[in-house]
Inverse folding.
């Protein structure tokens, strides 16, 4: 069991399962409604916990009723949130339409809560107690300041760059592993991971991983590039958080000392398995 910290956003998810995705101005009845805690880094911590690791989460929480729900779920999943900071405002909420027919999810996200700030307690935190830290590449200035503090300790850091937010390149030199979403590469004018990874290798030495949905994932360690085909469950049930499960699989592989090909294969398998189950009942 490793001790792992994830940092990023915590969200209240309101999920409606429907038998088909509605057309504009159509009224349909949901087959099921459920509420869950969400957010990339929280989902990753949930999966890592199910894989047997001790997890903590770092981010901003509101002071409203939804925050009570979020904290309750974090406690239920045994995720330590003592490094969270509380700010006045409303909790982020995602209303998700889950299509029972193909497992696709459509998300409407609402957020006004301030991003995590550089709290004084973080400067005094012993990040050396963690075996691994996984960060969302958001709120770049604060994340960069946190990374500079974290790298004073002998801890490995992975950073997920899901989409362009401006200035995220400043994080690249500090990461041991960089995970890039398709949206980010598309915004950079790249439609294939190999080309981007080869160009980025001229600037960084980190392992580079690009999950690519139904096409599996590409990865680069040193000068070698690998491609791992997608793992396909018998039926696609729920794709919510598949990318977060992928990230958990990566971190799990690293802390367990697998070689790079095994790490990416494990991540692909866990993401695929997640798509075949509702929620994170892995």
């Amino acid at each position: 069991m490793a001790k792992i910290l994830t940092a990023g956003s915590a969200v209240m998810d309101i999920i409606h399962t429907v038998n088909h995705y509605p057309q504009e101005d159509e009224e349909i009845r949901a087959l099921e409604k459920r509420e869950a805690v969400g957010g990339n880094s929280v989902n990753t911590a949930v999966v890592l916990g199910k894989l047997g690791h001790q997890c903590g989460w770092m981010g901003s929480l509101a002071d409203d009723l939804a925050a009570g729900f979020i904290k309750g779920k974090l406690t239920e999943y045994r995720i330590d949130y003592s490094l969270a900071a509380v700010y006045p405002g409303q909790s982020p909420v995602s209303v998700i339409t889950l299509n029972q027919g193909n497992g696709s999810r459509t998300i409407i996200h609402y957020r006004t809560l301030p991003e995590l700030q550089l709290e004084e307690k973080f400067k005094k935190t012993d990040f050396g107690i963690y075996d691994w830290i996984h960060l969302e590449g958001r709120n770049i200035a604060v994340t960069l300041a946190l990374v500079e503090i974290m790298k004073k300790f002998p801890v490995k850091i992975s950073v997920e760059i899901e989409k362009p937010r401006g200035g995220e390149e400043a994080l690249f030199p500090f990461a041991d592993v960089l995970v890039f979403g398709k949206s980010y590469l598309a915004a950079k004018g790249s439609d294939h991971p190999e080309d981007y990874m080869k160009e980025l290798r001229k600037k960084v030495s980190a392992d580079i991983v690009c999950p690519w949905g139904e096409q599996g994932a590409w990865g680069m360690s040193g000068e070698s590039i690998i491609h791992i085909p997608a793992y396909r469950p018998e039926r696609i049930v729920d794709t919510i958080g598949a990318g977060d499960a992928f990230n958990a699989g990566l971190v799990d592989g690293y802390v367990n000392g697998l070689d790079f090909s095994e790490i990416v294969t494990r991540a692909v398998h866990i993401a695929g398995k997640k798509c075949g189950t509702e929620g994170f009942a892995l």
About this structure: Residues 260-275 form the longest helix (16 residues).
